[in-house]
Amino acid sequence: MVNIAIEAALEAGKFLKHSLGKIKTVERKSGQERNLVTNIDKQAEEMIVEKIKQHFPTHNILAEEGTTGNENSEFKWIIDPLDGTTNFTHGLPLFCVSIGVEKNDELICGVVYDPNRDELFSAEKGNGAKLNGKKISVSTNDKLISSLLVTGFPYNITENPMNCVEHFQNFLFEAQAVRRLGSAALDLCYVACGRFDGFWEVALNPWDMAAGVLLVEEAGGIVSDFNGNEHSIYKKDIVASNGKVHKEMLNVLKKGMK
Ligand code: IPD
Ligand code: CA
Ligand code: CA
Predict the structure, then answer these.
(1) Which ligand is located closest to the Cα atom of residue 184?
(2) For the residues of 209-231, what is the DSSP string, one character each?
(3) pTM listed for this prediction
């Protein structure tokens, strides 16, 4: 399965790269001004799904642009064909393809491909995490004040769900620096390979997180919800870190939850 996920991610990723600046249609999802979808998101999803269905016609599928599969299968492919659509729409080369696979509700495989840097992140449960075939691990930094963190904001930012603006300010005051790249899947992969020490976001979807969560865990990091409880890709909030700064991150989040 991981080989098919890699093939699909490489193919779709190259398509995204070549389509940059050549978007034909941009729509707004469910009436939200900031939540965009282009014809390229949809075409990339079709390419990925076609490959999966060729090899695993009986498997289930949960894909951002609406493709579904066989709900009775123990395997579920969780796909974000273009993570970073806002960047992509503006011609900013910071986006990726994300494909995760669950077996009986447990993540067993994750692949994220960034076509702009030609970086392929992959993980299999129990087998570690890799970047372009080489083993990766999380950073060893153990203090928040020397940590480089990353976050993202939901499309309904004006409603400030779960105090996302407060959390952002609190982390700015307690970490070394905070970034916002615009692709949650890459944020997680960058925690996995030690470029970031930690990541949090208030409201994500399963396809943003599935592959990246396994990458972080297999690289030796920790993933939880804002309260420090077990994480689920079917819930909204996420904190992922190298493990060493996790408690400090949860303490900062606590301040913003009052
Ligand atoms: C978005 C990106 C972004 C995050 C948003 C996501 P999309 O995914 O991952 O970084 O902040 O919450 O929805 O819409 O570009 O696939
Ligand atoms: Ca996404
Ligand atoms: Ca997407």
Answers:
(1) 1
(2) HHHHHHHHHHTT-EEE-TTSPBP
(3) 0.98
